């Protein structure tokens, strides 16, 4: 029996990539509130109405249709058709949304001096400590009582090399340091990968605030391309998107709130929306943003490194 769904939002990046005529794809993975299609080596994500919009994704106005891994699909700028179930997802009414950090709608500025400490406190009091949040204890002098784990202890020995490379604008060394921890940790997107996404986001946000976008992009591109082959397909896609400044809508809102000369009262709620993502992914992303910005802000002056 034929059925339809309507997308309420679609990332501008995805719409620009999609072909004008139907092309073959296949369902790569199915979860409770999301599904991924593989099309010409590119992951295309469908989200239900409970999720924030992701890069290269469309969010439906309802729950996901019943899909099975491996089933064929046909996609175009008009929508996606699943021949096996005769289900069609229509894109015609979807709001086209840019998820690019480089969107000019809100210029980024270096954070208010108190903003990083506020973010740190939110991670400590409301974050999920099973992932990489214990780095707040392992990499900082101030003792705190967060339960660590073998993954974060492994990464903590290697992360300082990443920070050194970023300060020195050494793309090759940054790439090797990212590779050394990629794929490490719990979750569908391992904690280290989420942390790296956060670090790259901070690198790019700082570069934008300082007018040094090319330098920032050179660093993040090298990091993602070296790290991505060491993890799974879904996590690798997130790394490559973050390296280009393509972020989920909740992370993008957090960045626009954090990177302001004014300490925004909206920072706690924006951070909590990120924390709500996944088991530990949101907390791990915030931890990466915190350490990435802290590492770069210690330089002072106008340069990234």
Produce a short descriptive summary.
With 305 residues, the chain is an alpha/beta fold.
Task: Characterise this structure.
The protein is α/β, with parallel strands linked by helices. Helices cover 43% and strands 16% of the residues. The chain contains twelve helices and nine strands. The chain starts with a strand and ends in an 8-residue tail after the last helix. The relative contact order is 0.15. Residues 301-305 have low confidence and may be disordered.
Question: Features of this protein?
Answer:
disordered C terminus; 2 domains; OB fold (Dihydrolipoamide Acetyltransferase, E2P); alpha/beta; 8-stranded mixed beta barrel; 305 residues; single chain
Low-confidence stretches are 301-305
Instruction: Report the sheet with the most strands, covering strand number, pairing sense and barrel closure.
Output: 8 strands, mixed, barrel
Please bin the fraction of helical residues: 40-55%
Task: Tell me the series of helices and strands, N- to C-terminal.
Answer: EHEEEEEEEEHHHHHHHHHHH
In terms of structural class, how would the helical and strand content be classed? alpha/beta
Order of strands across the main sheet: 1-5-4-3-2-6-7-8
Query: What would the average pLDDT be, to the nearest integer?
Result: 95
- Count of helical segments? 12
What is the gyration radius calculated from CA atoms? 19 Å
Q: Overall 3D geometry?
A: globular
The figure for the number of domains is 2
Number of strands: 9
């Amino acid at each position: 029996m034929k059925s339809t769904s309507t997308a309420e939002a679609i990332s501008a990046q995805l719409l620009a990539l999609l072909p004008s005529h139907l092309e073959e794809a296949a369902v790569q993975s199915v979860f409770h509130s999301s599904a991924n299609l593989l099309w010409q080596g590119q992951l295309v994500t469908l989200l239900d109405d409970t999720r924030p919009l992701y890069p290269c994704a469309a969010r439906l106005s309802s729950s996901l249709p019943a899909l099975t891994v491996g089933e064929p699909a046909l996609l175009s700028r008009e929508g996606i058709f699943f021949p096996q179930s005769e289900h069609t997802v229509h894109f015609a009414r979807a709001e086209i949304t840019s998820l690019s950090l480089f969107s000019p709608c809100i210029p980024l500025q270096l954070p208010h001096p108190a903003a990083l400490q506020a973010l740190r406190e939110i991670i400590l009091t409301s974050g999920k400590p099973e992932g990489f949040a214990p780095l707040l204890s392992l990499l900082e002098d101030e003792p705190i009582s967060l339960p660590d784990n073998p993954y974060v202890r492994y990464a903590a020995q290697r992360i300082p090399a990443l920070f050194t490379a970023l300060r020195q604008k050494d793309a090759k060394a940054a790439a090797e340091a990212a590779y050394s921890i990629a794929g490490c940790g719990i979750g569908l997107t391992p904690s280290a990968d989420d942390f790296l996404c956060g670090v790259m986001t901070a690198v790019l946000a700082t570069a934008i605030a300082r007018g040094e976008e090319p330098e920032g992009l050179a660093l993040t591109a090298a990091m993602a391309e070296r790290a991505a082959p060491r993890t799974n397909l879904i996590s690798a896609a997130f790394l490559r998107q973050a390296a280009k400044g393509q972020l989920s809508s909740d992370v993008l809102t957090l960045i626009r709130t954090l990177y302001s000369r004014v300490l925004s009262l909206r920072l706690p709620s924006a951070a909590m929306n990120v924390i709500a993502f996944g088991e530990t992914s949101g907390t791990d992303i915030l931890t990466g943003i915190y350490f990435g910005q802290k590492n770069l802000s210690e330089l002072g002056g106008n340069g990234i490194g």
